[in-house]
Amino acid sequence: MSMIRDLRAVVRPSRVSPRKATSTPSASYDTTRDPATPSAVVDCAVYRDGRRLASAKPLTPQEAMRQVRRDGGFVWIGLHEPTEAEFAGIAREFGLHPLAVEDAVQAHQRPKLERYDDSLFTVFKTIHYIEHDQLTATSEVVETGEVMCFIGREFFITVRHGGQGSLRALRHRLQDDPELLAKGPSAVLHAIADHVVDGYIAVADAVQDDIDEVETEVFSPGRGGVSRGVDSARIYQLKREVMEFKRAVAPLLRPMQLLSERPMRLIDPDIQKYFRDVADHVARVHEQVVGFDELLNSILQANLAQASVAQNEDMRKITAWAAIIAVPTMVTGVYGMNFEHMPELHWKYGYPAVLTFTVAVCVGIHRVLKRNGWL
After folding, report:
1. Cα separation of 113 and 118, whole Å?
2. Are 256 and 282 in contact (CB under 8 A)?
3. Are 180 and 10 spatial neighbours (Cβ–Cβ below 8 Å)?
4. How far apart are the first and last CA of the chain?
C-alpha cells in the first residue's frame, strides 16, 4: 500500500472549471502528432520498474515489444485516429482480437469492457465543455471523443479519437511516479479511467450553471409581472446536449463496477480497490445527468405553461378593450342610422349628453375590468 499512497495526487491534478479556463490550448489538450513519428503513433515507450527507458531514436511498436520480451517491463503505445492500414501491423504484433481492432479503428462505440483471451479492451468517451457567451438554439455545449485501451501483461495501447482528451500530460504525471508505474498496465488503466471521469465532474458543474441560467430566465417576472418564458429551442438544444452527456456516462457504470469488484488476471489487486472510487464518481455523475434531464423536462413544460399564461393574459386584455370600445360603437351606430324622427334628434344638448353618457359608461367598464384583473 505504501507504494501507491500518492495515487490520487498523481492521477488527479487540481481540476479547473471549464468556465475558468483560458482560451490558450494547454499541453493536456495537445492533439498534434510528434514530428518524428509521422504515423498515427503519438508516443511509444518501454517502462521497466516504473521508469521510462531512454532510447536514442523513437521506437517502433515492434522494436519496443521485442525489447520488452527480451528484458521485461511493458510497452505503452499511444495512437491518434489510426487508419486500418496503420493499425494492422500493431494488431498482428500484439495479437489483438479482430473485433476489438475494428471497434478501435472505426470509433463511435459505447463505453464498454470486453475480455479477449489474455487481453482486455475498454472504451471510454471523453467529454469536453464548449465555452459560449450565451446559450442559443444552436449552441454546442459538450463535445465528445473516445479513448480505447488494449491491456495485456506486457503492453498497454491507447487509441484516441477526437480533438480533445490528449493523454500526454497524464503520461508525464505517471512517469513522475515510478512506484505507481511499477504496478504495470493496470495502473495506467486506472489513471486513464480516473482522468476521464474527473473530466465528467468538471463538465457536469459547467452544465449545471447553464441549466441554472435557463431556469432563472424562465421564472423571472417579465413586463407587467407576467413571465413570458424563453425560446423553447434553447431549452431543447440544452436537453439534446445533456442526452449526449448521458450516453457517455450511463454505459460506463457496468465496466467500472466489474473492474472494481471482479478479480481479473490483468488487474493488480492493489490497483483494483481504487477502481471503486472511480465507480462511485461515475455513479454520482450519472445521477447528476439524469437529474439534469428531468429538470430540463420540467423547465420545458414550465416554459410552455408560462407562454400559454402570457397568451391568455394578452387575450384578456384584448377582450377587455373590445368591450369598452363596443359602447361608443353601439351609440354611434344608433345615431348613424339617420332617421328623421329620432328621440332628441334636434335637442340642443343631445350631442354633449350622448358623449358624456358614452364616456361615463366606458370609464365604469374600465374600472370594473381593472378591479377584476383583466386590465
Report:
1. 14
2. yes
3. yes
4. 74
Q: What is the CA radius of gyration of the chain?
A: 34
3-state secondary structure 246-297: HHHHHHHHHHHHHHHHCCCCCCCHHHHHHHHHHHHHHHHHHHHHHHHHHHHH
Q: What pLDDT, on a 0 to 100 scale, did the predictor assign at position 340?
A: 63
What the block records as the C-alpha cell of 64 is 519496443
The sheet carrying 112-116 orders its strands as 51-52, 41-48, 74-80, 155-161, 142-151, 119-129, 112-116
pLDDT at residue 199 in the model: 92
Map residue 22 onto helix, strand or coil: coil
Please give the share of the chain, as a percent, with pLDDT higher than 70. 82
Q: What is the pLDDT of residues 42-96, one digit of tens each?
A: 899 999 998 999 887 888 888 999 999 998 999 999 999 998 888 988 999 999 9
Alpha helices in the chain (DSSP H): 7-11, 61-71, 84-94, 98-106, 168-175, 178-181, 185-219, 232-249, 253-261, 269-335, 350-371
CA-wise closest residue to 123 among 29, 193, 28, 199 = 193
pLDDT digits (tens, 9 = 90+) for 339-375: 565 666 667 777 777 778 888 888 888 887 777 776 6
pLDDT band for 289, please (50, 70, 90 cuts).
Answer: very high
Rounded CA separation 240/141 (Å) = 9
Q: Write down the H helix ranges in 182-268.
A: 185-219, 232-249, 253-261
Tell the residue number behind the cell numbers 348613424, with chain if given: 336
User: CA 242 to CA 129: how far, in whole Å?
Assistant: 11
Cα–Cα dist 178/9, whole Å: 14
Q: Which of 12-21, 92-101, 163-172, 299-308 has the highest mean pLDDT?
A: 92-101
Place of cell 444552436: 138
Q: What CA–CA distance (Å, rounded) separates 254 from 13?
A: 26
